[in-house]
Amino acid sequence: MSPVSAERAERLVEAVGEAGLDQLIVGDLVRPGDSAPDASADIRWLTGFTGTSAIAMVGAETRLFLTDFRYTERAESEVGEAFERVTVEGRLLSEIAPRLAGRVGFDDSATSVANLRKLEAAIADGDGSAELVATSGLVAGLRRRKDASEQEAIAAAAKLADDAYRAGLEAGLIGRSERQVAQAAEARIRELGGEPAFPTIVAGGANGALPHAEASEREIRAGELVVWDMGARLGGYCSDCTRTFAAGEPGERARDVYELVRRAQAAGLEAVGAGVGGRDADEAARAIIREAGYDEAFGHGLGHGVGLEVHEPPRLGRRSEDVLEAGDVVSVEPGVYLPERFGVRIEDLVVITDDGHRNLSSLPKELLVVD
Amino acid sequence: MSPVSAERAERLVEAVGEAGLDQLIVGDLVRPGDSAPDASADIRWLTGFTGTSAIAMVGAETRLFLTDFRYTERAESEVGEAFERVTVEGRLLSEIAPRLAGRVGFDDSATSVANLRKLEAAIADGDGSAELVATSGLVAGLRRRKDASEQEAIAAAAKLADDAYRAGLEAGLIGRSERQVAQAAEARIRELGGEPAFPTIVAGGANGALPHAEASEREIRAGELVVWDMGARLGGYCSDCTRTFAAGEPGERARDVYELVRRAQAAGLEAVGAGVGGRDADEAARAIIREAGYDEAFGHGLGHGVGLEVHEPPRLGRRSEDVLEAGDVVSVEPGVYLPERFGVRIEDLVVITDDGHRNLSSLPKELLVVD
Known about the structure:
The first copy, chain A, is of the alpha+beta class and about 375 residues long. In chain A, about 35% of the residues lie in helices and about 25% in strands. Chain A has ten helices and 20 strands. In chain A, the strands form six sheets. Chain A has a six-stranded mixed sheet. The first copy, chain A, starts with 5 loop residues before the first helix and ends with a strand. The interface of A and B includes residues 30, 110, 136, 187 and 199 of A.
């Protein structure tokens, strides 16, 4: 990844002004300073910082970046001169309060009730002039549209995961445990320089009917369908892909359901494009599953945005009010789950374009029968 | 792990009553339903549920467990009959509101401002009788004291990580990249049936002066100290350990600083025990580092609790107001970091007992010189 462009901060300041605010606090105000990875994709997008303990503040005249002593040197190399960098001795929250002025936005989904109270108290202890205003997803809204370098990063992560799928399939499925298959594929992702973007799902037979089963010790048997959901993280950006494979020759019903999901997935892909509602895209795929009588068996939405986080806006689903935009990167992943029997899910990752989409997934979609 | 005892819910209900509450909401109310692992250690401790999307509610007459359709079957096997189990069609938050009554506690560190507003609105839309009350760490307070099965689980995770250290050292350090060393050790953790509890730190030379450096592509060279911080997660419970090794013969100053940290760590171990303040334990180790003139170079606290989370109460540090109790499991990890030169950290994981501690770390602490 090339360094983050200062243009991102400028776009954010514009959005902050349009929201009637003087400043915006950016970062994880749930557990600031804790060591959760991905604590703040917003911070990474805005500043390029890859550490886990940082808060930024932007305003017309303000580009401020706070971190603690553990990350002073990393901030110097990653954030550079685009922001005024401050290494904080105490808690990040206490240090930011004296610097707030005017109408100050905070992200109400990224701020805990406890930390809002602490910020309010710190402001009251000072000159008390700043007014805290709840905002929602100002940075996430800008993060939706991926620029060329971000699309390239996600495409590279997707390609890496596809390579790990292929390596995994070469070792076969029948007689191996779900966990063995998942671990070998994740080891391959790491060898290739990435990390798993989320715990890999490998779910054979009835386990495939649990949409988010984890890979278990259960042995994959001949005749089963295997749902395999995997993504890689590379340079901070995630991929997300699912294929359903047949471990040996499957039954007729399994083949029929597979082809149904494949048609629904193709319809979903056909539907997406700039200007299309997330609900309409979902319905394009869902209608096919419904008409085949499996409406109840498709219990989740068609897809979600993918970027610095595995799940981010926009949403494609029955209740979505999002409208797709060029530059969105979204998953298209219908599924049919038949409890105690089997499941099928097929998922591609696509870049939304003005005239449709560009598919980042290179794996075939006809049913592969693997020994 | 044996199934979670119903006694945990009873102890929690008692604490809820003592806090003047009728009910308590348990779980991650920041991003409920999202796929972040470890979203709620409280839920796991209380119910045994290992999935990522669940909210529980307890009160004198209430044991309620809500999850979504993805986890219905897992909840059945893991949570069982100890709780009334409900599979929620829509959002977990909307479904819980009609069930609230009286004074209802929520954890203000685990609840986002946005979700508190949503809960308040849902209550107002209903009969409006419930009153939401901010609480802090009621479950985390009970989680501090680890029972015998939990101590066993953490000890097993620590032993697994120690085995991975030994396997890693056999492959040597000099000429390998930090990332190679870390990846090989993490692969060993997985082979042994665990997962890394956090991204392994292997930091050679000047990188060791960055207390939370990640393993980089930098090659480890002869004469360097290597800070290696690693933990395993097994059955949900974490371990945490650090050793500093010499890659070939180190210089005299490095040996001196190593011995200083080793003495400070021994003093920290000597100090801990039931009834001891987290601040006093920290001071016992810090005094030794201060007297040697390296006060500035020990910029973090002496330790932290470890359990279902890698960082949990209590804290051992200059600002800690915690008092250690028998059954706490804490790290004891002083360090000295000399910017642009090297760092040393030595960390054991111990169970606090009435007369001191039981050490769960089996690795030696004299400076090991490794090729």
